[in-house]
Amino acid sequence: MCNFKLSGSLIKISKRSPAQNQMQIPSGYGVYPQNYSAPSGHCFQGPGKMTSLPLDDQRGDYYSGLYTVPTQNVVTPKTTNQQPGAQQIYGRVPPAPHNVGSTPEYFQGAASSASHLYTSASQPYSSPVNHYSGPAMYSANSSAVSQGFPSTCGHYAVSTVSNAVYPSVSYPSLPAGEPYGQQMFTSQNASTVRPVRDNSFSSQNTALSHPSPLPPPPSQQYHQQQSLSGYSTPSWSASGPPSTQDNLVRNHTGSLTPANNNPTNTGMQYGEYVNNQASSAPTPLSSTSDDEEEEEEDEEAGIDSSSTTSSASPLPNSYDALEGGGYPDMLSSSASSPAPDPAPEPDPIPAPVPTAPQPSKVAKPFGYGYPTLQPGYQNTAAPLHSGGQPCSPAYSGFQQYAQQYPGMNQLSSSLGGLSLQSSVQPESLRPVNLTQERNILPVTPILAPIPNLNLDLKKLNCSPDSFRCTLTNIPQTQALLTKAKLPLGLLLHPFRDLTQLPVITSNTIVRCRSCRTYINPFVSFIDQRRWKCNLCYRVNDVPEEFMYNPLTRSYGEPHKRPEVQNSTVEFIASSDYMLRPPQPAVYLFVLDVSHNAVEAGYLTILCQSLLENLDKLPGDSRTRIGFVTFDSTIHFYNLQEGLSQPQMLIVSDIDDVFLPTPDSLLVNLHESKELIKDLLNALPNMFTNTRETHSALGPALQAAFKLMSPTGGRVSVFQTQLPSLGAGLLQSREDPNQRSSTKVVQHLGPATDFYKKLALDCSGQQTAVDLFLLSSQYSDLSSLACMSKYSAGCIYYYPSFHSTHNPSQAEKLQKELKRYLTRKIGFEAVMRIRCTKGLSMHTFHGNFFVRSTDLLSLANINPDAGFAVQLSIEESLTDTSLVCFQTALLYTSSKGERRIRVHTLCLPVVSSLADVYAGVDVQAAICLLANMAVDRSISTSLSDARDALVNAVVDSLSAYSSTVSNLQHSVLIAPSSLKLFPLYVLALLKQKAFRTGTSTRLDDRVYAMCQIKCQPLVHLMKMIHPNLYRIDRLIDEGAIHVNDRVVPQPPLQKLSAEKLTREGAFLMDCGCVFYIWVGKSCDNNFIEDVLGCPNFASIPQKMTHLPELDTLSSERTRSFITWLRDSRPLSPVLHVVKDESPAKTEFFQHLIEDRTEAAFSYYEFLLHIQQQICK
Amino acid sequence: MEAVVFVFSLLDCCALIFLSVYFIITLSDLECDYINARSCCSKLNKWIIPELIGHTIVTLLMLVSLHWFIFLLNLPVATWNIYRFIMVPSGNMGVFDPTEIHNRGQLKSHMKEAMIKLGFHLLCFFMYLYSMILALIND
Fold first, then answer.
1. A849:B91 CB<8 A
2. Across the strands, what pairs with A660?
3. Do B37 and A851 touch (CB under 8 A)?
4. Chain B contact probe: residue of A842, A844, A934, A1006 with most B CBs at under 10 A
5. How far apart are CA A318 and CA A439, in angstroms?
6. Which residues lie below 8 Å from residue A716, measured CB to CB, with a gap of 6+?
7. Number of CB pairs < 8 Å for A and B?
8. If residue A757 lies in a helix (H) or strand (E), which one and from where to where?
9. How is chain B split into domains, by residue range?
10. Which of A677, A965, A988, A1058 sits most deeply, having the most CB atoms within 10 A of its CB?
11. What CA–CA distance (Å, rounded) separates A268 from A255?
């Protein structure tokens, strides 16, 4: 198959007739490019006009036709039979593996939350408790403040509090002469709604939820019992409107019967909707009697509170109704609706400390900010209103308790020094003495903190896997943020592979008319016809089409539309969102075939992978593919359908590259499949005897750009050495003697702007360049990476790659290629990030080109790309209690559909420093800091970046100890939310990207930096701080069940050699690689049963697979490793490392808590920080 | 002779003022998203060297003609211009880099710089005008 036509410079093939060529499409496109590149900023914005569909004559059609897609896609209640499935019902991500099927854990969470209640009750500041036990209550608190609700006497308060916690309704305790008595009543009435659910929950699982570490005070116990007995009644009210008791009762009694008998009683369900609707109806008149008696100013809030509540809780029902699901399901879903509350807690598995790690419990700020809220915005938060006045009394009530039961004061000793201004003492603020706490790392994986919002919003909020903020409590002013010395920013993973995603097709995509925000769960409906934007507060009209809800097939419920019920949705965009017809999927492979490349032998692996995955390449019938190879010349391949064999066309004029035949180099994948296969089979052997050592990468890229510019698409570049010819040639800049220098690391930035310019050109033509660098020597990745960085590509680096000498790298390439070729891809994408007025974004991290202040141009988007954004607070946020962030990613799917994926995140605003600290998401903060440090080391120097990292810890901890905690400076104190901060920063300092003193090749370092910039948070955290497990004694205790497999859950070990014993075997999960370290005197049973070797000595040096042995321990180990692998897109390579093998340094360099020649141990690092603080 | 020096300085200063205004307009266009970063930066980078040369000439002229005060006044700005030009990293496309201009508040600082320069050149303009008139009267 080597009989290609070779020619000196160029063959013009006369057979080609342009008319029948594939390039018909490109020529069609030819009209557009100029149009396209320049104004594409608008393409995202979409035109201002919204075409509303005439409803009158074709409604039937419209319902069935237009909405077939969404209904199919949106309804995802596969998991309704699961108890805690409420989350899944909403079409969100499936819960973290830990939660799957492990209901007891949820209950444990609930239990611990209950226990926390009492623990903190002992402290003088109990308001946080309220927050956390029921978001409903926090608003109550605020509303109380806003109306000057007099702080009430303790006795009365106590009873209301217990009411809230264990909602047995006991209004009688209301003081009669209370000026706001009536209102009080209302809110109490409403307050039953939320806690009741809790209650129904706890009573179902009495055994689990009751054991709290501290015995509840007698009166509360009494209530508890009472509530248990009255369980069934209130549990139904959960889905009903909050304020109408009559309605509730009717609802309840009516629906109880079908619940038992008739699984598909839709009639009853509609009945309930009617009720809901009635209560949520927009006009003040239709609000309930309680509302009517409220003061005028509160009316709006009251109304909306009911509407929002009803929109939140009956949703599972509506999905069920559509699916034709039974009532039992409905029961379970409504009963389990509180499940998400305990579920997302950071620590669902019982932790040693019996306190619930709910993040921030803020009392004052909400109440504080409330009265000045703009009316419409208030509404969003208004369900809280219904939540119950009792909260404010609760405060004093608990205070009393604190005095009455000093014995309960479990934490008082450690809290002694807390200043009074911190009105909060949640778990996340528990002071931790870092130098004394030996086991700082929790035994279970660290989960993202949940923003302290009310339950409804919490349930609707965006998954932390897609969207995280470094501070889950946004400080009110820039001054407060500066005082806290913490980075504020967002971490995004917008195109993540989702298992469930509501896809919405509708003619009008409802957006704010001034700021173009997409409608989202956090907007407020002023009445049925108008909604208020939550970002710019503009009041917009609800279009006619939006009034119809495809899920319930009912009319007039805009707040129940999937857009308003899911914070992650995908719209199928109309032609308004296109500047040209959606492009086809176009893939171009640019391959280095110089002597070096042939020697490394990557071509075999690549061609094999391509052959295997040719049919799995994402695309449709228009998919096109092309190949370019280069050494000192550039070779094109004519794959035009009809040829008997591929034709190679050689262009040797690399100074002025041109395309030999512009229209048959990129060919339709399906039409020319045979030719492509021929070429792929022939390629690995075509250049075996080449003596060409030069590499003309620059000209090859220019050719690729010319080839791709009519359509756009993806260019995959495989390079194995420094480019040495033509434009963009590079010189070796690395001095090997400087690799372990502790002083200056030079050449972190690019040497030339050629690749950057090329990337920007590509980006303008919607082409992304992905770089695979497989080199054994220095190849100046810092310059080469620019081609991917600014064209939104991705970078893969395989140091010392050789297909036979280095099999683990070869396996890695194989696996990564498989993922790379088959993963989802979005073309001609743009991403816009919007945030509430007052916040502004100033720096972006990731691979893209920032086209305007908030618009990122992404030629391609892939599911493994992460982004980070730094925020600043421009205007004070005093007049709002919530801020929202929205990312909208507009892309063309590989099937040629224009789609918009929208994520919305909602966070509370706080005014006190303690609350800011309480809400820190330490993992997000670390990832953002890492990104900033990369920027710093490129723009100034590495040592500067390292200093900045250390200063970040020093500043934040000293700011904390000087402002929030008044403990002495002689001890190093961190709030519990920040306790891992020093550890992670130390891990960063020992990361390849930032380490000094240890020999690090420049390319390795630059690659680590590239990864920090473009990896999503989950992957990045594993890279920074790997997980270590002991696996020689896996037991089934605490194991979880996934797909009928038992997956053991060994505890996390800290990354220190002191945890390694010679008798054990340990698994280290570094994200993209697994190490199994086997100790010298490891149990022979383990070696035999799991590794399949008779003894330690016979374990091979390079072992990358575990044998499938039929033993229990082997099965456990393999199921654990498989489970770890399944949780990430890329299957990591496994290395078995013997204690004595030379490869163990690879393993030991990840033990970051240990001392190395060049770096501190963890303890030394803490002492260093302490010193710095005391200075 | 002195009058000629100041007439030349005045013209040069006018050009620099226009250049500053052009910088401000282009940057604010970028701020308002009327042009994209790529074209904005390539437009501005073109004028970096003319600006540098223009300002250095005036500064040197003042030195040669022994106007110490005006020379010292111009010196910091001229130094800054040269420093900024020299310190551009090798991978950047010029003083204004489209990939970085939206990051770390660079746009704002560029804007601020252009404003300050405008103010400075205006001040110089009147100074040259005054000196020129003085020189003409003395002649």
1. no
2. none
3. yes
4. A842
5. 47
6. A587, A588, A589, A590, A770, A772, A820
7. 61
8. helix A754-764
9. 1-138
10. A988
11. 6
* B103/A41 CB distance under 8 A: no
Which of B33, B92, B103 has the CB atom closest to A844's CB atom?
B103
- What burial class does residue A54 get, using C-beta atoms within 10 Å of its C-beta: 0-12 exposed, 13-18 middle, 19+ buried? exposed
d(CA A837, CA A871): 12
Helix H or strand E encompassing A1135: strand A1133-1138
Listed by number, the residues of chain B in 62-101 with a beta carbon closer than 8 Å to a beta carbon of chain A are: 89-93, 98-99
Average pLDDT over residues B113-118: 93
CA angle A1052, A1053, A1057 (to 5 degrees): 160
Q: Which residues of A touch B41 (CB under 8 A)?
A: none
- In a 3-state reduction of DSSP, which class is residue A1076? strand
Q: Is B10 on the interface with A (CB under 8 A)?
A: no
For residue A403, what are the contacts with CB-CB under 8 A and spacing of at least 6? Answer: none
Mean pLDDT, each 10-residue run in order, chain A (1175 residues):
37 36 36 36 36 37 35 36 37 38 38 38 37 37 37 35 36 38 36 37 37 40 39 35 38 36 36 35 34 32 30 32 32 35 36 37 34 35 36 36 37 37 59 78 81 81 88 89 90 87 85 88 85 87 80 76 86 85 90 89 90 89 91 89 85 87 86 88 87 89 90 91 87 77 78 89 91 88 90 90 85 88 90 90 89 86 91 88 91 89 91 87 92 90 89 88 69 83 90 84 89 89 88 77 79 81 84 84 81 80 80 83 81 82 80 81 87 82
Interface test with A, best of B96, B104, B109 (most A CBs within 10 A): B104
Q: Is A935 in CB contact (< 8 Å) with chain B? A: yes
Residues A800, A809 contacting (CB under 8 angstroms): yes
At residue A568, φ and ψ (nearest 5 deg) are: -120, 110
Shortest distance, CA A680 to any CA of chain B (angstroms): 36
Calculate the CA A1070 to chain-centre distance. Answer: 19
Substitution target in B99, B101, B106 with the highest count of A β-carbons within 10 Å is B99
Residue B36 with chain A: CB contacts under 8 Å? 38, 41, 851-852
Q: How far is CA A261 from CA A257, A326, A336, A970, in A?
A: 6, 10, 20, 68
Hey, is the C-beta of A292 within 8 angstroms of any chain B C-beta? no
Question: Do B121 and B23 meet the contact criterion of CB atoms below 8 Å apart?
Answer: no
Nearest CA in chain B to A787: B91
Q: Are A982 and A973 in contact (CB under 8 A)?
A: no
pLDDT digits (tens, 9 = 90+) for A781-837: 889 999 999 998 999 999 888 888 888 888 888 888 988 999 899 999 999 999 998
Contact residues, chain A, for B33 at CB < 8 Å: 41, 852-853, 855
**CB of A1052 closer than 8 Å to CB of A441:** yes
